[in-house]
Amino acid sequence: MATIAPTIASVPARSWRDSFKFTRTTLYAIFFLTFGILLLIAGAGTAADVNTQLTFERAEVGENAAAPTITPLLVPTQITAIGIGILYIAGGALALIPDARLKRVGTIALIINGLLLIPIVLILAAAGASTNVTTMMAVSLRLATPIVLGALAGIWCERSGVTNIAIEGMMLTGACFGFVALALLAPMMGTGQAQLIGIVIAVVTGGIMSMLHAWLSITFKINQIVSGTVINILAVGITSFMRREVLLSSEGGRETLQPFPIPGLSEVPIVGDVFFNGRPIFYGMFALLLVTHVVLFYTRWGLRTRAVGENPRAADTLGIKVNRNRWINVIIGGLIAGLAGAWFSLETTGSFDDNMTSGRGFIALAAMIFGKWTPIGAFGGGLLFGFSDALGQRFQFLGVPIPSQFLQMVPYVITIIVLAGLVGRAVAPKADGIPYEKEGK
User: Fold this and answer.
1) In this structure, are 45 and 157 located in the same domain?
2) pTM of the predicted model, to two decimals?
3) Helix boundaries (H) for 55-166
4) Alpha-carbon distance 115 to 110, whole Å?
């Protein structure tokens, strides 16, 4: 007993610091606690008779628009803000309690809080006015199109083990050369055919830029980050030259790809309204999303691609030509990035300006990481960024007293927040960014 007593006495007493650890869940809890307090303040400062009207109407009505009307939803702004504020405070406090038995409940509370974030922001922004939810959904999907396509381009490359930060440059050159083709060919063959050829040229241009990236990073084994940076810089120079020498002296029109409703789908309430003004590249995003998911996870090529990205040495011993696989996948990614570029010049603006992609290629990489290198996850990430962009535009439309420069920063701020806190432990393919060379060479 005499020898045991000193041992027991030497055990230090546990303090509150031992049971409290600052984790990602703690960060979320503090955010929702703070936001909940702000909601209570905002609710207390709103008059009791102020309501927000949420409508579900088709944004643009054409000749065949006969979508069923849905009764607008009238939401009391004050009660909603106070109620959700209380939920935020309760959920944040619950998640901060250092009790393993309440951990699951706290996590569920934080998820519910996150899902309520979008509607409460819309309700507060449109307090005393009306906002069209269908339009927000349609604009969010439309603005997410180049980001999702860029993320898919990154997935094809990085799943095979090639880091590709040159998506921005591939998108920019695709946008430029696609519109150059339209500007030069439209006077000779008509706008419709010229637009189709412009899309093809944009896709091929993205593929050519990706071949340069593959040649530098796979064949010559140059650092893949350096290779991507060089391509991005090269794209800025080439597109600026083409705009100055070709586009400014041509008579290129400003017509964009025409929308067309999908028969049957356009008659479905809300969903049909969202897709009523869909355009070719917008629909192509969903087709490529499905194809990428099926090919990567349900075909032999996808299995080999994932094997090359995870363990190229083992794949090589099984007879898989590692570098050829990487070459093909990088080119496929470049073709998709070129299509994303065509969205800017041919489907959206009907023009080309210097640096018109505005960093969307880098946001696409963030969406890819957010989605853990999976097509469906990347689509979710792209939709998040698309919504943040659409929200900034909606704030301007509703006259929210926030400087427009800050609203334009929203997508980039969201990118920082997502990569810093929301992604969690994002694990890239193990061989991503590592050149491969066969043994004995």
Assistant:
1) no
2) 0.87
3) 77-96, 103-115, 117-125, 133-158
4) 9
Q: Find, among 27, 30, 49, the residue nearest to 38 by Cα.
A: 30
3-class secondary-structure state, position 130: strand
Q: 86 and 191 share a domain?
A: no
DSSP secondary structure of 172-232? HHHHHHHHHHHHHHHHHH-HHHHHHHHHHHHHHHHHHHHHHHHIIIIIS---HHHHHHHHH
Measure the CA–CA gap between 168 and 362, rounded to whole angstroms: 6
Q: Is 202 in contact with 175 (CB distance < 8 Å)?
A: yes
Upper half-sphere CA count for residue 432 (Cβ side, 13 Å): 18
Structure tokens that stand for 8 in this block: 């027991």
Q: Looking at the domain assignment, is residue 82 inside a domain?
A: yes
Tell me what percent of the chain is helix, strand and coil, each rounded to the nearest 5: 70, 5, 30
Mean pLDDT per 10-residue interval, the chain, length 441 residues: 50 52 76 90 88 76 49 88 92 84 82 83 84 86 95 96 96 96 88 92 97 95 94 96 81 73 75 80 96 97 96 93 96 97 93 91 91 92 87 78 73 70 70 84 56
Query: How many whole angstroms separate alpha carbon 253 and alpha carbon 366?
Result: 34
- Residues 181 and 59 placed together within one structural domain of the fold: no
Domain coverage including residue 142: 135-422
CATH number at residue 337: 1.10.3470
Same domain, 221 and 251: yes
- Give Cα separations from 13 to 8, 17, 282 (angstroms): 11, 11, 61
Classify burial at 200, counting beta carbons within 10 Å of its beta carbon; exposed 0-12, middle 13-18, buried 19 or more: middle
Distance between CA atoms of 429 and 164, rounded to whole angstroms?
A: 13
Q: What is the spatial distance between Cα 366 and Cα 362, in angstroms, rounded to a whole number?
A: 7
